[in-house]
Predict the 3D structure of the following.
Amino acid sequence: MLRVLPVPILLISIAFLTTSTPTPGQGPVTCPQIASNMRPALLVVEGKTYEESRLWVAYQYGGKLHRESIISGNRLEVTQLDNATFLVSTSQSPYIGATGSTYVLDLNSGTVKQISESPGIRCLRSEPSRKTAMLIDSVRIPGEDRLTELGLTSLATVERQALSKALLGDEYSKITHSRPKIVLDNEYFRITHPFKISPDFLHIAYISNKGDFDGGDFELKSLDLQTLKTEVLDRHVNAQVPGISSFLHGFPPFEWISNSQVLYQNMVSQDGVNALCAFKIVDIRTKEISEQFQKKVRMELNGGYLETDPLTGQMILNRKYVLDYSRNQIIDRILPFTVVTDPLQKGTEIRSANDVLYSGSDMCIGTLLSTSGSSFAYVLTPQYGASSAKVYAFFGRDLKPLSLPVAQGYSAFTHPIGWIQ
């Protein structure tokens, strides 16, 4: 697709210089430079078939939708590291051990850099304020996890540490649970790791089972990456899964909130698909545990998720909520937008304040709000479980909403990734 904006010769040169040689089964990699008058822009994955997906960047200009291709491949996994920096891996198979590549995209400068010939590179934590991120490779060498620091400005990588059974003994299997796990949440496939790294990259927190997963009783532990000393932070952390879950067990969600404090969820009791949960904070220096508040939440199929949004610093609970532990509250992640579903009328209404963005019979299976709260993407499918889906984007309150989808394809592989502002 030709860009309607005037493009300096320099930018065209950059596009050619930053195109990478594709691996078998993969298209060429290009990285458009997203200028200020092209923002907000949305990065989105479009899965046309089960074998091939494509990564696009979409923006609205002159009242029209424009899309620019970045990369295609059999399997794409994309993580936003900073406002315009993304980690992209592509493989020729959905299974661990597949061949492929990992790239870093900088859409500020229009630069793409291949950082590995392995598709197994994932982001443990991104710290945009320090312009750095910690990556992990758990696939290339069996029984070993390699930690690599990525500079978000230079795109240079420095290997920091390798964790292995030879180094940590039997505790290694407790930290990694042997392998990262592929799980399906409400929106798309994700590969998750059972441990989290602190903001200063000096400690790891992890959940350790106490023998029988079915009991739902776990320990929260920490590992000092400098001394390799492990310590128990809480000996009794409970997590259960609802009866409708196909998972045999789940893990309690937890996340670092500072260099020395971990926030985690402990299930107190359960009632059907809901559970009363206590949200606690433990200090790894003093081992002091403080309960912040208790709240009834809907049980998750695999225990739950708690993660830091690198762009806002907010704690995201179960992909859907912002957990504000300082105010002891859990709020909808997409406010001021709302999605209302009427199961009797089999209809959905999506609103921005008093404006209706969508009203119809399709079901909403995914959303993505920009950090400013002014841009919004949502995924519609004819019905839950349908194979097809369309991604729509509202590019800002001062722009006229578009009725065209920015992407459409198989529902399991078509979803928004991140807003560039």
In short: The chain is about 5% helix and 50% strand. Residues 291 and 349 are 37 Å apart (CA to CA).
